[in-house]
Amino acid sequence: MRVVERTMGYTYKHERLGHVAQIGTMPIIRSESVEGNVGGGSRDSFVAMLEEFREAARLIGSLELVQTISAGIRAPDDPVVLRTVAGALADHAVHDVAFTALLRAHFLDRSNAETLASLGKEALDEGVSNIAATLMGDAPSVLAENFDCRYSYALNLIFAGDPDRARDIDLSGDGDRALVAREHVHDMLRRVDLARTVTGLGSEDLRGWHFVLTGSLLAVLSNPPDDSGMNGRFGAVADTHPLCREGISRLAALLEKIEVRLRQVITLPDRASRIMAAAAGELLDLPVVEFDDKEMPGLLVAYDLDTVPAALKDALLFKRPDQVLFVHRCDWTSPPTVGPDIVTMLTAENVSPWSARERQVPVEQDFRISVVTPASDEPPAEIGKRIVRAIGVGNIVDEATKAVEVLSRLAPLAIATRPRWYRLPFYPGSPVSSVLQGDPGLPVLARGAAAAG
Question: What does the pLDDT average to over 277-294?
């Protein structure tokens, strides 16, 4: 299940079964306090929320999830049961409800390290690191005894926009796991130091914070004519050939500026990636080859990682020398588990230029008809040529020359050493707010009722 609508509530669909399971909505409840009666909720409203999601589990045919949620309904005051419920919901990507269950479990037993560490992980997936960082900071004795909690606390502080406090957290320990955690946080803090000198890392600096949190370079920022509150992200986008070209052109200018020479363009197997790779090969004057080995050097090109097979995404996790992963579009509301080295834009919804499109055409006053343009059946190479010939993105995006200059100054800690052994996932949270997220500085977004009582 995945969030597909963020209005005054939530609608979920189960993509694996290919149909929508409408189960009503949950109110987004604002609270002035993180603890106590979160959102003014109660034990009864928490149980009512679980009952709605049990019905959703029935609709998607998941008997195991039904049984797990039923256990939570029977024992809403048992932190162990609530952790199990949260884990099952997280496995179905219902991170907001999982986070709510963990909040309740934490308020029932504030000394449990497993609950606090799980809460911190779900906060990253749900984009509410400010809440997790507050709760973790209020549990020093738990942090002192548990490495996972300290690691999660450091990450949530950085995602909440408070990296300097993360520097003081003790992440010493033996073994590979502790080493990976230390290097992860250390690399993020190195990027903080660099970004502060290049972009400033202000409250609206999406490119800088995206680089800090993911090690990825964001090529294009939205530049809406009005104050849309997106702060560089895109909402619903009807993509265009000129915008596709703009992303590749900025990539080409960046690679030239930082003197990175790649020998070939490597296309991933889906149709959209083949189209982008064909255009990239022509614009960069490089041969285009098929992906057949994760060790291949060159420029890996994808249009959207959502269309790339899961097994192939796993192969992209580990970074290889002389290899750069470029993706045109990433969904920032449901981000990829493998982040590209360079991404053109972050969008909430997207329709590719070659997909079927529906538009409203006025035929007389107060009356419109829907006209559907069918999907293009041209070969990928032909559509790639359309991208190469495209001109004029207008003023909907930021200025290219300045963007490439900023990216080139960030690139030494992105393309060259990002990080040393694996590509990081993207997360929906960020210190930079948007109209779809709300203000990350406010203790809000308490889903349903997490309060104990």
Answer: 95
Which residues in 317-333 are b (16+ Cβ under 10 Å) and which e?
Answer: eebeeebbbbbbbbbbb
81/227 Cα distance (integer angstroms): 45
Q: What is the pTM of this model?
A: 0.84
- Cα separation, 230 vs 236, whole angstroms: 11
**Can you tell me the distance from the alpha carbon of 174 to that of 378, in angstroms, rounded to the nearest whole number?**
56
Pair 430, 159: CB distance under 8 Å: yes
Distance CA 97, CA 74 (A): 17
Query: Which of 209, 103, 219, 236 shows the shortest CA–CA distance to 433?
Result: 209
Q: Reply yes or no on whether the pLDDT at 73 is more than 60.
A: yes
Q: Which CATH number fits domain 206-413: 3.20.20.210, 2.170.150.40, 1.20.1250.20, 3.40.50.2020?
A: 3.40.50.2020
Task: State pLDDT tens for residues 422-445.
Answer: 788 888 888 987 765 543 332 222
User: To 10 degrees, the CA torsion angle through 211, 117, 101, 425?
Assistant: 30
Confidence of residue 33 (pLDDT cuts 50, 70, 90): very low
Asked if 119 contacts 99 with a C-beta cutoff of 8 angstroms, the reply is yes
What is the maximal distance between C-alpha atoms in the chain? Answer: 73
How many Cβ atoms are within 10 Å of 438's Cβ, its own excluded? Answer: 16
Residue 109 near residue 79 (C-beta atoms within 8 A) = yes
Half-sphere exposure of 105 (CA within 13 A, CB side): 27
Are 86 and 102 spatial neighbours (Cβ–Cβ below 8 Å)? yes
Q: Cβ(145)–Cβ(116) under 8 Å?
A: no
Q: What is the distance between the alpha carbons of residues 448 and 48, in angstroms, rounded to a whole number? A: 9
CATH value of 2-198+439-447 in 1.10.10.10, 1.10.760.10, 1.25.40.10, 2.30.110.10: 1.25.40.10
Res 39: pLDDT: 32
Half-sphere exposure of 215 (CA within 13 A, CB side): 29
Place of tokens 């995206």: 210
266 phi and psi angles, rounded to 5 deg: -110, 120
Report d(CA 392, CA 32) in Å as an integer: 47
Give residue 106's pLDDT.
94
Task: Give the CB-side neighbour count of residue 126, counting CA atoms within 13 A.
Answer: 29
H-helix or E-strand spanning residue 363: strand 357-364
94-86-91 Cα angle (round to 5):
50
